[in-house]
Amino acid sequence: MVPSLVRTAGALLLLVSFSSAQLRGDAAPSCTQNDGFGLYCPTTCGVADYMIRYMPTVERDLSHLQRELDTISNLTQSAEEKIVYMKDSTSTVQKSGLQDTYFKKTSNMLDDVARFEKTIITQEQQIYQLQNMISSNERRMADLKQLSIQLQQKCTEPCTDTVDIKPITGLDCQDVANKGATVSGLYYVKPRTATEQFLVYCEIDSFGRGFTVIQRRRDGSVDFFKDWIQYKQGFGYLSPDDTTEFWLGNEKIHQLTVSSNIPTVLRIELVDWSGNKKYADYTMFKLGAEADNYRLTYGYYFGGDAGDAFDGYDFGDDPSDKFYTSHNGMQFSTFDKDNDKFDGSCARQDGSGWWMNRCHAAHLNGKYYQGGVYSEKDAGEFGYDNGIIWVTWHDRWYSLKETTMKLIPLSRIASGGGEQAGVKQFGGL
Ligand SMILES: [Ca+2]
Question: What distance in angstroms lies between residue 370's CA and the mean position of ligand 1's atoms?
Fold first, then answer.
């Protein structure tokens, strides 16, 4: 009896110590523009969430047990009192020598005593079972406590980012290179008009040129069918060794292209499934503000061997093909924000976010197709050309293997060996 209550109290103490544990977890509602993007934090705190959810059930079970034990305790107590009282009465009767008179009464009382003793045995069995339950619960609590301690230790340690982020910062990657950075990797940049610094992958070559990479496709590991907010903020993963896919984010690209007086060149690099590499440069590249739906503008096709797909393409379907597939001056569209020149939604039917016209001749955020060649049948419910397309190189039913979109000031694009240097650098990917 008593030991069981002590054990219950012990279990309750455990509960109290649990309830006071700080709530932790990674159930953050959503990512913000800069926080967490490109960071590598453990997500095992999700286990803590699970445990915290489980706690109230155990707590309820234990209070239920406690109530039952209290009831049994009261019953047993009163039964014991009654037995004592009856024993006293019996001895009084015996002493007074009135056995005959009280014989019947006494035998009834003895029956009662026997019944009460039976009840007590049953109750003791119940108590024994309940004690077993408590012990098993205590074992579970101890396990949970152990787990909680482990998780707390994990959660109290600061999120260690094992990714190597270089200490040099600048307005963009060229500025970072100008300040002495010679190695490609992750750097923080803060364009003049930006409110906060953000992480970028800088590709720094042996000529001291620093390219700020804004888009990367390489293996189809990231789905590019994202909504307006995701394209605005960026998605995918930045990696210090350039092994992951991402979209840096329209807001950051906007800041990078409008806060310098020197025109920005957008360099596009493409790899097909045979390993061939080509590139295209566009100078005076700018992305408008969100109020203008991140409109794409550039001055002119500056060069390259991939051809000028941004200028549109005559597919032979219609005389206005080229006009309606050009991209200069187009606003950005996503499946939830249609800013294209088409009755339907290009972004929805082609599964991407892009500067859609009606719809495209270049489509680098398209669906990833292993092996490259695909058909209307592969293209899903709409059946349109939705791959990673640069139609002045490969036709629209060929999806490229790798793409890179990156920025560099015009003043640096021709330095260190001119166009050929760019090709060589690219060849070293
Ligand atoms: Ca439309």
Answer: 29
Cα separations (Å) of 175 from 107, 200, 255, 270? Answer: 106, 13, 15, 25
Q: Per the confidence metrics, is the pTM higher than 0.70?
A: no
What ranges make up the beta strands (E) of 97-232?
A: 165-170, 185-189, 198-204, 210-217
Question: Using alpha carbons only, what angle is made at residue 16 by residues 12 and 19, rounded to the nearest 5 degrees?
Answer: 135
What is the distance in A from the centroid of ligand 1 to the CA of 342?
A: 4
Farthest-apart Cα atoms in the chain, separation: 129
Using the mean position of ligand 1's atoms as its centre, give its distance from the Cα of residue 335 in Å: 10
Burial of 96 (0-12, 13-18, 19+ CB in 10 A): exposed
> Do residues 174 and 189 lie in contact, with contact meaning Cβ atoms separated by under 8 Å?
no
> Mapping DSSP to helix (H, G, I), strand (E, B) and coil, where does residue 97 land?
coil
The length of the chain in residues reads 429
Question: pLDDT tens digit string along 28-74?
Answer: 444 444 444 444 444 444 555 666 777 788 888 888 888 888 888 88
